[in-house]
Amino acid sequence: MHCPFCRHSDSRVIDSRTSDDGLSIRRRRQCPECGRRFSTTETSSLTVIKRSGVVEPFSREKVVSGVRKACQGRPVTDSDLALLAQQVEETLRQSGQAQLDANDIGLAILAPLKDLDEIAYLRFASVYQAFETLNDFECAIEQLRDRQRADTAADPEGTHA
């Protein structure tokens, strides 16, 4: 690590701490040449292998833009979408893989989107899972109904937020 002050080609780590809920490491460093201290933040990079074979860095913005289309006309805010993208990234990082298929990202989107807005979930799932018949929609809707019934049975008075 080059010193940002004198450009010496080496530095010594004085202290290391995790930050961002363990998603990055903050290191306090000291230059042996000029003695000045500075901090660095290290994160692991996630790359996505697209269906075409192209490899590109993971982008929360792409998650948001893909999900935003499914949320058109729904009561979903930009901050809801930003939180969803953060949840997706955290799920992907927890997998421990540095390279992911685009398909893995779609799978990681489905669960938090279902919790956010069921209609947006159906829209996204219909494209992502290539629904071809009305039966595909009916099966997905029945799964959502089963989930609602289970939630209602677990909390019949609706007191759980």
Structural commentary:
The structure is a single chain. With 161 residues, this protein is α+β, with helices and mostly antiparallel strands. It is 47% helix and 19% strand. The chain has a three-stranded antiparallel beta sheet with strand order 1-2-3, with no helix packed on it. A three-stranded mixed beta sheet has the order 5-4-6. The longest helix is centred in the C-terminal third of the chain and has 21 residues, at 134-154. The chain is elongated, with a radius of gyration of 22 Å. The chain starts with 11 loop residues before the first strand and ends in a 7-residue tail after the last helix.
Short structural summary:
The protein has helices spanning 60-70, 78-94, 102-116, 118-128, 134-154; strands spanning 12-19, 24-30, 37-43, 47-49, 55-57, 99-101. With 161 residues, it is of the alpha+beta class.
Report the strand count.
6
Radius of gyration: 22 Å
So how many helices?
Answer: 5
Low-confidence stretches: none
Structural class: alpha+beta
User: How many angstroms separate the termini?
Assistant: 48 Å
* Order of H and E elements: EEEEEHHEHHH
Helix fraction by DSSP (H/I, runs of at least 4): 40-55%
Indicate the mean pLDDT. Answer: 90
Q: Sketch the major β-sheet.
A: 3 strands, antiparallel
Shape: elongated
The side-by-side strand order for the widest beta sheet comes to 1-2-3
Keywords:
47% helix, three-stranded mixed sheet
Helices and strands in order:
Blueprint: E1 12-19, E2 24-30, E3 37-43, E4 47-49, E5 55-57, H1 60-70, H2 78-94, E6 99-101, H3 102-116, H4 118-128, H5 134-154
Parallel strand pairs: 4-6
Antiparallel strand pairs: 1-2, 2-3, 4-5
